[in-house]
Amino acid sequence: MKVTREKTENSQAFLRIEMEPAEVEESLEESYHRLARKANIPGFRKGKAPRAVLERFIGRESLLEDALDNLLPQAYEKAIKEQEIEAFARPSVEIAQTDPVIFKATVPLKPTIELGDYHNIQLTPEPVELTEEDVNTVIEQLRRQHATWEPVERPANFDDLVVLDIESHIEEKPFINQQGVQYQILHDQPFPVPGFAEQLTGMKGSEEKEFKLQLPKDYPRGELAEKEVWFKIKVTEIKQQRLPELDDEFAALVNPDFKTLDLLRERISTDLRLGAEEKARREFEDWVIEAVADISQVEFPPVLVEMEVDRLLDEQVRWLQASGKGLEEYLDRINKTEEELREELRPSATKRVTHSLVLGQIAEEEKIEVGDSEISAEVENIAQSATENKDEVQKLLDSPQARSSIEQLLTTRKTIQRLVEIAGGSIDAQGK
Fold first, then answer.
1. C-alpha–C-alpha distance, residues 407 and 105, integer Å
2. Are residues 169 and 225 in the same domain?
3. What is the pLDDT of residues 216-263, one digit of tens each?
4. Cα–Cα dist 261/248, whole Å
5. Are both 252 and 190 inside the same structural domain?
6. Is 410 in the same domain as 364?
7. Residue ending a domain, choose from 222, 242, 262
8. Is residue 18 a part of any domain in this protein?
9. CATH number for the domain that contains residue 202
10. Domain count of the chain?
11. Other beta carbons less than 10 A from residue 261's beta carbon
12. Contacts of 19 (CB under 8 A, 6+ apart)
């Protein structure tokens, strides 16, 4: 076996491995004996057919393929040992030719992280500001949630709720055909077609109207993009929204625990502030991590990004499944291929890998440790938050693999907290 290290770049070693004919022949012989014991060849008992007969029966290509499937992993392990390479992840291996047998391996190498002087990073969190207008906005949202709809005898306006009979087609093919549809007329409403809502304003009860609208270029169903839709609409009822009065009765309607409107406003203010503080905390953490990453030098093999893209895509698939949808349906709706979606996720995945490696290196530098008691406490917290089967959840979380994952999570959390303390001035350059 002859191994050539052609180059090393992007945290990857590129190897060319040429097998000796004797090595290939030995592997072919092993495959022959293994396959002969399984093959049902007429006129021969299993394992007794000569190799030439077996080759004619299954084809030499199949025999060679089996031989290489077993030979390549062994040859690869010998090659990286000979080249003194420490592989960080599974390699990408391709057969360049079969006579002689030459294959090429792209070996991911361990990432290299050179941290910048993160102890001298000084950042100030943005102050949390909450205005009376913020509270009023939530109050208005609650009023609309508890509003009633009352029939009116006048032309339809924006914000009204109308009941419609819809008939439509595109190039003589049915598009939307429904009766008794409830539709709220809102400004710039994109559904079902931009401009549809505007066509309804001014219509009276029992009035009919015909009009045409063009679908946009980015319409989810790509085959219909930019096509013209013919609509025939009949308004059967018009309703207007009746908002509740802003008084103590309204507060009790929102939640019986609130006896007065002042108590409701106080709770909304508290919840908004807590939410804003939590958002500001996460944003400051992200800011600090980004600042540390910006002054650090990080190199890693591309396979880590692809693995992170896989994770992000899996998260998206799980989210879609939870809402009763599948990936294919989603891709069809956004008019994208899976590869295009992966490409969109790649920048985010690259950032996540970079930040993860930087945080891991800082955890080592700062000697961040997580004790068994901390892991157990986190397991208990997660189990207690489960809505059902708490004992089963706790048992699952107490497995070695789950505890290892929780340890990593807590390590990352403590590392971020250490960086926040450093950046905010709670810890000086000497780590005190």
1. 34
2. yes
3. 988 877 788 899 999 999 999 999 999 999 999 999 999 999 999 999
4. 5
5. no
6. yes
7. 242
8. yes
9. 3.10.50.40
10. 4
11. 18
12. 1, 71, 75, 100, 101, 102, 103
Q: Same domain for 386 and 271?
A: no
Q: At what angle do helices 51-58 and 60-82 cross, to 10 degrees?
A: 100
- Nearest-angstrom CA–CA distance, 388 and 386: 6
Residue 373 CA to residue 235 CA, distance in Å, equals 66
pLDDT tens for residues 335-377? 788 999 999 999 999 999 999 999 999 999 999 999 999 999 9
Residues 360 and 400 placed together within one structural domain of the fold: yes
Q: Are 63 and 152 in the same domain? A: no
Question: Model's pTM, two decimal places?
Answer: 0.75
